[in-house]
């Protein structure tokens, strides 16, 4: 761990003492030979070793990378708690363009940093990293999940992530309309990458009217070619303003729900795979005030982490799928708690997750 700049230290100090703070450990990693610059953030290990993916992204600044790692790690604590896993929350970000900067040496160096934590952090795939990358990382670190079946892993976790979001949508429909069916519902999916394209397949199979958009035109064309019934839309702004939209599914990067997008939404439900969809505290209340039902992101997108956690104990796909299917019941329970307490669903989910972490932290060590 070298060369922590003053700017990064300032960000760490600010977030350590803010509402996004409370993290147990933050490690800034640098390997000059490979060009690796990474941040590993452990938010909580109350429920067990921190588990969360590795994001490889060309952040505009070191401050932005640190802030993202901290926010994502905190979200993983809540996600793992709500998924009923014996894991706390952690996340890592590698600074750089994965298309240009990713190399075997860099991934091996990263694996050594993760290994140096001695099992307090278990890593996996995220935006910009793939199964093949985890296979490389695993050569230096046994606390690596999301590996290929050939290397003792479970493979692509996006399949169950999408399945969980689909279950969250069905639960949202049940709560709002009294019927979990998505047939003939008009659903907009923003981001049809690793998770989004699997979600589209579930929706098309059920008979929903699906609209899609993505910053990568080739991704849109690939989905439209595979599913002729799907309708491409110019961009996310056009998608959220589409008349008659029943459900909006943000499946790209975070911050999709903000002071600009929320007032423009026409959908009655927001349920998507993206992490950290609420750009800042208070957005969840804005959604509730507008009568928009928000399915908390870290609850409905937990299928992937359920899969990678199972990999540590001998992966069984059907067992994982059955557990991911319970996201339907968990989502309904959150809506019920929100109604009972008179708070938005996001706040209800936080209360339940925080209670679980608090109770685990109070248990005596044996």
From TrEMBL:
<dbReference type="InterPro" id="IPR016211">
    <property type="entry name" value="Glu/Phe/Leu/Val/Trp_DH_bac/arc"/>
</dbReference>
<dbReference type="InterPro" id="IPR036291">
    <property type="entry name" value="NAD(P)-bd_dom_sf"/>
</dbReference>
<dbReference type="InterPro" id="IPR046346">
    <property type="entry name" value="Aminoacid_DH-like_N_sf"/>
</dbReference>
<dbReference type="InterPro" id="IPR006096">
    <property type="entry name" value="Glu/Leu/Phe/Val/Trp_DH_C"/>
</dbReference>
<dbReference type="InterPro" id="IPR006095">
    <property type="entry name" value="Glu/Leu/Phe/Val/Trp_DH"/>
</dbReference>
<feature type="domain" description="Glutamate/phenylalanine/leucine/valine/L-tryptophan dehydrogenase C-terminal">
    <location>
        <begin position="155"/>
        <end position="363"/>
    </location>
</feature>
<keyword id="KW-0560">Oxidoreductase</keyword>
<comment type="subunit">
    <text>Homodimer.</text>
</comment>
<keyword id="KW-0520">NAD</keyword>
<keyword id="KW-0101">Branched-chain amino acid catabolism</keyword>
<comment type="pathway">
    <text>Amino-acid degradation; L-valine degradation.</text>
</comment>
<dbReference type="Pfam" id="PF00208">
    <property type="entry name" value="ELFV_dehydrog"/>
</dbReference>
<dbReference type="Pfam" id="PF02812">
    <property type="entry name" value="ELFV_dehydrog_N"/>
</dbReference>
<protein>
    <recommendedName>
        <fullName>Valine dehydrogenase</fullName>
        <ecNumber>1.4.1.23</ecNumber>
    </recommendedName>
</protein>
<comment type="similarity">
    <text>Belongs to the Glu/Leu/Phe/Val dehydrogenases family.</text>
</comment>
<dbReference type="InterPro" id="IPR006097">
    <property type="entry name" value="Glu/Leu/Phe/Val/Trp_DH_dimer"/>
</dbReference>
<dbReference type="InterPro" id="IPR033524">
    <property type="entry name" value="Glu/Leu/Phe/Val_DH_AS"/>
</dbReference>
């Amino acid at each position: 761990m070298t060369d922590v700049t003053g700017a990064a230290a300032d960000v760490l100090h600010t977030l350590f003492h803010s509402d996004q703070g409370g993290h147990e450990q933050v490690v800034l990693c640098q390997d000059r030979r490979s060009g690796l610059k990474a941040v590993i953030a452990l938010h909580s290990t109350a429920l067990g070793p921190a588990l969360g993916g590795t994001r490889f992204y060309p952040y505009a600044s070191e401050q932005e990378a640190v802030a993202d790692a901290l926010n994502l790690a905190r979200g993983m604590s809540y996600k793992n708690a709500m998924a009923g896993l014996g894991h706390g929350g952690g996340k890592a970000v590698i600074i750089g363009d994965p298309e240009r900067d990713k190399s075997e040496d860099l991934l091996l160096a990263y694996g050594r940093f993760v290994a140096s934590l001695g099992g307090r952090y278990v890593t996996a795939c995220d935006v910009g990293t793939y199964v093949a990358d985890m296979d490389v990382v695993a050569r230096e670190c046994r606390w690596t999940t999301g590996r290929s079946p050939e290397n003792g892993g479970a493979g692509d976790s996006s399949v169950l992530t999408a399945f969980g979001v689909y279950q969250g949508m069905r639960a949202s429909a049940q709560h709002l309309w009294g019927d979990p069916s998505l047939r003939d519902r008009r659903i907009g999916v923003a981001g049809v990458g690793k998770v989004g394209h699997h979600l589209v397949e579930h929706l098309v199979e059920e008979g929903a009217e699906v609209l899609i958009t993505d910053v990568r035109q080739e991704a849109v064309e690939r989905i439209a070619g595979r599913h002729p019934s799907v309708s491409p839309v110019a961009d996310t702004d056009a998608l959220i303003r589409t008349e008659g939209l029943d459900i909006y599914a943000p499946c790209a990067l975070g911050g999709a729900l903000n002071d600009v997008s929320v007032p423009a939404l026409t959908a009655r439900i927001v349920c998507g795979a993206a992490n950290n969809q609420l750009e800042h505290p208070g957005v969840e209340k804005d959604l509730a005030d507008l009568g928009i039902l928000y399915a908390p992101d870290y609850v409905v997108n937990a299928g992937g982490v359920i899969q990678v956690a199972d990999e540590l104990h001998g992966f069984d796909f059907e067992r994982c799928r059955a557990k991911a299917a319970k996201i339907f019941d968990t989502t309904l329970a959150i809506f019920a708690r929100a109604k009972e307490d008179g708070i938005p669903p996001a706040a209800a989910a936080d209360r339940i997750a925080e209670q679980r972490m608090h109770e685990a932290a109070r248990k005596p060590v044996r």
